[in-house]
Design goal:
Length: 763
């Protein structure tokens, strides 16, 4: 097993010009920076109509009547559809089919779709949607997930989506030192840079093509086809430019009404959601309530962890079962815990729906178990970093699920790296440095009220899907006239798959010019863009296909010279033999032929957690350590993140520049979770669903992010040995910021995002 350490925060070796290990720039970088990249909102078609969706103003209500006549009679309106106009399945869902295309009898959340309109102008469509009259019988919403257990069922499937009672070890064991905590995590929105948009075009054969920023086009096609009452081959999903995705692009609730309108009118129909519609329509991170009790000996070594985890799924199931599995499995963090008893629930409420957002489940529990580690360190009088080092997980240890950690787990090395990294200097108390104060130069605070805090956090995430998910992907590599083409339905969401695919082919075939074909559902499926699966599974399929083409290319030469293909190598477009007898170019060896191969990649199988939360549920894991340095105005509660020092377990660095960008983006997203991002609701109604009411971190909020160490200990079961990069810092950074604010203020900090009143120092 190859092992290495890379520090990106310092002098770097010159990377190769192409292939794996090169900082190859994205092929679409120029178009995106110049504003010429074709996003879904830019699409156009002859005879275009515009769509609008009517959404419920109530979180819970019974629909008494819907009158669409006023909208249908408006000039320019071509179609108005409700639940009565859905020809196929009236509900959909990626994991559980429980979400109606349009609400029929009951509204279960604020913003639920009631009807949709197609008109010849976007303003006409919106006015027509507003003209639809809906008579509601308003019902009391269930917005407290703790009350959902005893409440009347909000859905025919009931309010409980899943319960996992994990039991590991001896329940009678107790520790000499016990700390308890209650933690609350708010509702984070994915807040995509570009709101949802799409174009549906009817086909002469009665089918429809949907052009949209999907991250899982084949599943979207199948769900849409079932609702349209069509065979899957009658529906084609074409992936347009994705303006970033952290899970929000998985919701087909915008695409299905769009296709229905195109089929009804026989015209192309476009939908471009407003920011408010985007907030109302897609899923968010699960708000979570966590109760913890940690038992340890007098040296701080963990003896037992007890926890209760309650996920608010909102109105529909979506990814709640998978999120709960991750939360329960990782509830103790990357620490050795001999005895663990974790109960987890995911319940339906009348709050906005929750779903897949990067690091789901793992982020919420990380904030809680790291809060417990800080409490334990304070109680026994041990340095927080030292306490963590006494308990860290390593390869060969066993998780509370009973699964043995077989992948590299260099948790101690990661924590040591950030702990030993030099701390940033203190700001000078001068007017010129006023912008360095919490709140900025216009803040009302005084320099004398600012306290600096240093905090630590360790996080872990799983790779690929979990609990038996079939993670297969297919790819084709073609070579002709010295140009290679990769055909794979893995969607480029900003994670860098298209760049990685080019690098793999460059590395394997020595061909510098590599194109990655656009994605649609005519290609074999590659699965969703989540949990780093495209780096592993789709990248693995590309590598296998490229190696098959390599064999096709080299076999005639090897036969001619009486040697095996293993004795030939391809470097910089040249084919040479080990003894120097053979030397030719790839182009000459091709001799005008077209070579191609198709291959699949499928990791080893996993299994669902059983009735006691036991099972080998994960393909592998990745780990991260972060040290946060913050300045806090202890009178005003204003927090400024000064520096985030990151050490991460990456397996292998495939593209240094791209990897650094992914880590920095993940850390920044986590800072938003820690300090500003909270989609607030009032009895289930979203308050201010816009980017003024929902505070995203900006470049001014981003601290110095120091990637102090990347440990390259390759996972032998993964193609290239690489691990996913962006989810781990998202999971870890909120807990690190909270830990640093605790150190600065002496306050417990048990809620994210951290409110100013919680950061005012204790008297």
């Amino acid at each position: 097993m190859a092992t290495g350490v890379t520090a990106l925060d310092g002098p770097q070796q010159e990377p190769p010009a192409h292939g794996l290990g090169a900082s190859l720039p994205p092929a679409d970088a120029r178009a995106k920076t110049e504003g010429t990249f074709p996003y879904a909102a830019d699409l156009w078609a002859e005879g275009l109509l515009w769509a609008a969706i009517l959404r419920s103003p109530h979180p819970h209500a019974r629909i008494v009547a819907i009158d669409t006549s006023g909208a249908a009679e408006m000039p320019g309106v071509r179609a108005v559809i409700t639940h009565d106009d859905v020809p196929g399945d009236t509900a959909y869902g990626r994991r559980v089919v429980d979400r109606p295309v349009f609400a029929a009898d009951v509204v279960r959340h604020h913003g639920e779709a009631i009807a949709a309109v197609a008109a010849d102008h976007p303003d006409t469509a919106r006015m027509a949607a507003a003209a639809i009259t809906v008579e509601y019988e308003v019902l009391d919403p269930v917005t407290d997930p703790e009350k959902a257990f005893a409440a009347e069922p909000l859905h025919p499937d009931g309010n409980l989506i899943r319960h996992i009672p994990l039991s590991y070890g001896d329940a009678t064991v107790t520790g000499e030192v016990i700390v308890e905590g209650l933690y609350r995590i708010g509702r984070q929105d994915p807040a995509p840079i570009g709101a949802e948009a799409g174009l549906a075009v009817p086909r002469p054969d009665g089918g429809v093509e949907i052009y949209t920023a999907s991250t899982d086009p084949h599943t979207d096609r199948d769900l849409a086809a079932a609702c349209f009452g069509l065979a899957p081959e009658m529906v084609k999903v074409v992936v347009t430019g994705v303006p970033g995705a952290t899970g929000d692009r998985e919701d087909p609730g915008f695409q299905i009404p769009l296709g229905l309108l195109a089929l009804r009118t026989g015209c192309p129909v476009k939908l471009a959601a407003t920011r408010e519609e985007s907030f109302l329509g897609h899923a968010h991170r699960h708000p979570t309530l966590l109760r913890y009790r940690h038992h340890a000996d007098t040296e701080g070594r963990l003896v037992k962890v007890e926890a209760q985890i309650l996920l608010d799924a909102g109105a529909y199931a979506d990814a709640s079962s998978e999120s709960l599995a991750a939360a329960v499995a990782f509830a103790c963090g990357p620490y050795v815990v001999p005895h663990a008893f974790i109960e987890g629930w995911a319940v339906r409420t009348n709050n906005p729906p929750s779903g897949h957002v990067r690091g789901e489940g793992a982020m919420q529990v990380c904030a809680a178990y790291e809060g417990q580690m800080d409490k334990l360190a304070a109680k026994i009088g041990v340095d927080p970093a030292e306490l963590r080092l006494r308990n860290v997980l390593a390869t060969g240890d066993i998780l509370p699920t009973g699964q043995t950690v077989t992948c590299p787990a260099p948790v101690a090395e990661l924590l040591t790296a950030v702990r030993e990294y030099p701390l940033p200097p203190l700001p000078k108390d001068t007017p010129e440095a006023a912008w360095l104060l919490p709140g900025g130069p216009e803040g009302a605070g005084e320099p004398g009220a600012v306290r600096r805090g240093v905090g630590y956090a360790l996080g872990m995430v799983h790779m690929l899907g979990a609990e038996g998910a079939d993670e297969v992907s297919t790819a084709t590599v073609k070579v002709h006239d010295g140009i290679a083409t990769v055909i794979c339905a893995a969607v480029e969401t900003g994670q860098g798959f298209a760049t990685l695919a080019r690098q793999i082919v460059q590395e394997t075939l020595g061909i510098e010019e590599v194109h990655v074909a656009s994605v649609d559902t005519d290609q074999p499926p590659a699965g969703p863009a989540a949990h780093g699966r495209h780096t592993w599974v789709s990248g693995g399929a590309v590598e296998r296909a490229a190696k098959m083409v390599r064999t096709q290319l080299l076999q005639p030469l090897a036969h001619k010279f009486g040697m095996s293909t293993e004795l030939l190598q391809i470097t910089d477009g040249k084919i040479t033999s080990y003894d120097g007898v053979l030397s030719t170019t790839v182009t000459e060896a091709m001799d005008g032929k077209e070579l191609w191969a198709t291959a699949q990649c499928r990791p080893h199988p996993t299994e669902p957690l059983d009735a006691s939360g036991q099972g080998d549920a994960f393909v592998g894991m990745a780990f991260c350590a972060i040290r946060a340095v913050v300045d806090v105005d202890i009178e005003l509660g204003a927090v400024r993140v000064v520096e985030m020092a990151v050490a991460q377990d990456v397996g292998r660095v495939l593209n240094p520049a791209q990897l650094a960008t992914r880590i920095e983006a993940g850390v920044t997203q986590g800072i938003g979770t820690a300090l500003t991002e909270n989609l607030r609701t009032n009895r289930g109604v979203i308050r201010r669903p816009d980017l003024t009411g929902y505070a995203l971190p900006t470049s001014l909020d981003a601290p110095d992010i120091r990637i102090v160490q990347l440990i390259e200990e390759r996972d032998v079961v993964a193609p290239f040995g690489a691990k996913p990069a962006s989810a781990a810092p998202v999971v870890t950074s909120p807990a690190a910021v909270a830990s640093a604010v605790r150190a600065a203020t002496g306050r417990p900090i048990s809620r994210l995002p951290i409110r100013p009143q919680a950061a005012v120092a204790a008297p």
